[in-house]
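Ticket #4471: complex job returned nothing on first submit. Input attached below:
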Amino acid sequence: GAVVSQHPSRVICKSGTSVKIECRSLDFQATTMFWYRQFPKQSLMLMATSNEGSKATYEQGVEKDKFLINHASLTLSTLTVTSAHPEDSSFYICSARRTSNQPQHFGDGTRLSIL
Amino acid sequence: AQTVTQSQPEMSVQEAETVTLSCTYDTSENNYYLFWYKQPPSRQMILVIRQEAYKQQNATENRFSVNFQKAAKSFSLKISDSQLGDTAMYFCAFMKLTYGNKLVFGAGTILRVKS
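Support reply: We reran it on our side without changes. The output follows.
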């Protein structure tokens, strides 16, 4: 089955630092990757859609300068939380899919804690 | 815009029994996919079952089956012979097949399987 690897699984850092999260599709080429944010006991909130080689499309209300997304290859997308603050603490999940009519396969998520 | 409604915030079922999780959605699209994802305490998102709207036959995957009622825009998940490992948050999701197709998630239903 399709495997998506997300790294790191957990990160704790000081306020003001930038944090990079990687999302890799290990056994398929992903034309599109997605980044979600999830608060405890809530649903996944889509932050942005990332297509290889083009700029990410951000959802309304998501600050593109705060959450930098790069999709440099068909197997790798990165999310950088810049100048992170405690309110950015959350669970971030990526997903990837081969083509537009294929299901999304999810990474295991990253728990980000900003002190 | 599409919306997905899961009206049961929490459900519980006795081990080995059957439980049905409800999901309704609203769309003007004719062709789309519906999904059920499972998120156990580990927070990994696992695809449980997928249904193509053009297929009248309900999808089944081992102990998991759906009751897809297109006219009523209803997509319930039935879990038979419930196991302790089925304890998780379950998300119903919709995806259109036209441009900009991304997953639209419901709020989720927490299912607890009791021994």
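Chain B touches chain A at residues 33, 35, 37, 42-47, 50, 89, 91, 97, 101-103, 105-108, 110 (CB under 8 Å). Closing as resolved unless it happens again.
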